[in-house]
């Protein structure tokens, strides 16, 4: 099986793959340094990793401001395909999440204007981060379609809906991308109807956390290695209860990667990207070295035997623990 890993299409735009997920630059997975983060972003532009993903909730506006600062430099904005999201409510004063989800017209208009101000530009792709069950899809996506016509963004996306909700939304507005978690330890879209729906509707899949929030890289060997401020400590899959058993998938992937003389991260990213020309992994990192490592995954040519071994590892493993804390799990698949 030979699939081009380097280029994908979103809307009518060719974008490079893999892309770059910005969330970790906002002190989510342990401390981050703004100046170092800006250097990572500048390096991403230099090597051609120019499909960037952020959201207003990442750092409660900080992530958009950080990315916006780099986009203002020289002609950087013209080189980047930029995506951001709305829907997860945070307090602009305390900078803390309220735990609420909103999708009403008034809120959406407030969010896009605030994001444009922080970014210093209009995004290319604008996602509903989580579906608001209290608001009709007609109101949410009717508003997004109107904002698209007003020039606030070019493309509309959804993140973590159910297959049924995705299908309904496409009858109201043109949905140009689905963002969903997808990796060797989270292959859920293969069985919950979302992959089938996206392919039926010709919607590309933006695969976030393709490295299992760093778990699949093999970098972490125990729960204790996570910084006290690291949000992953709250995720059941990283808990002391499940950490050791979940290492089984890491060990299997690492063994395959070793035979191929690539890193576990490169193997996982190449596998995700090779699942179809409609799938774009967007790993994130705070390190230029890791960015280069991830970017080099586009040159990994997996063999038929590799695919068989990886698929056997994926199908033979069930991750222990939910992928989000209980409260956040309630907001996905709606």
TrEMBL record:
Coiled coil: none annotated. It comes from Schizopora paradoxa. Gene3D superfamilies: NADP-dependent oxidoreductase domain (3.20.20.100). InterPro entries: Aldo-Keto_reductase, NAD(P)_OxRdtase_dom_sf, NADP_OxRdtase_dom. CDD domains: AKR_AKR13A_13D. One of its GO terms (cellular component) is cytoplasm. It holds the Pfam family Aldo_ket_red. Keywords: Oxidoreductase. This is Aldo/keto reductase.
């Amino acid at each position: 099986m030979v699939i081009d890993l380097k280029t994908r299409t979103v809307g009518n735009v060719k974008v490079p793959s893999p892309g770059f997920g910005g969330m970790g630059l906002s002190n989510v997975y342990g401390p981050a340094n703004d100046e170092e983060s800006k250097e990572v972003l500048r390096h991403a532009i230099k090597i051609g990793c120019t499909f960037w993903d952020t959201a207003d909730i990442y750092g409660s506006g900080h992530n958009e401001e950080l990315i916006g600062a780099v986009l203002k430099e020289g002609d950087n904005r013209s080189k980047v395909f930029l995506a951001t999201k709305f829907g997860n409510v945070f307090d602009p004063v305390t900078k803390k999440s309220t735990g609420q989800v909103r999708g009403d017209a008034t809120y959406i208009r407030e969010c896009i204007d605030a994001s444009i101000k922080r970014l210093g530009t209009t995004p290319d792709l604008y996602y509903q981060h989580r579906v608001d069950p209290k608001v009709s899809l007609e109101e949410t996506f009717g508003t997004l379609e109107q904002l698209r016509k007003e020039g606030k963004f070019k493309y509309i996306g959804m993140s973590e809906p159910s297959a049924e909700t995705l299908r309904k939304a496409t009858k109201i507005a043109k949905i140009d991308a689905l963002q969903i978690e997808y990796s060797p330890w989270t292959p859920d879209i293969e069985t919950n109807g979302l992959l089938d729906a996206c392919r039926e509707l010709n919607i590309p899949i933006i695969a976030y956390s393709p490295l299992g929030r760093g778990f699949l890289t093999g970098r972490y060997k125990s729960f204790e290695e996570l910084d006290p401020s690291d949000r992953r400590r709250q995720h059941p899959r990283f808990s002391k209860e499940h950490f050791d058993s979940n290492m089984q998938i890491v060990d299997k992937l690492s063994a395959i990667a070793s035979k191929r003389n690539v890193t576990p991260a490169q193997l996982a990213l190449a596998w995700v990207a090779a699942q179809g020309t409609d799938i774009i992994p967007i790993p994130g990192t705070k390190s230029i070295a890791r960015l280069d490592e991830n970017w080099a995954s586009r040159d990994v040519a997996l063999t038929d035997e590799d695919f068989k071994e990886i698929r056997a590892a994926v199908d033979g493993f069930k991750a222990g623990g939910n992928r989000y804390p209980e409260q956040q799990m309630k907001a996905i698949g709606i």
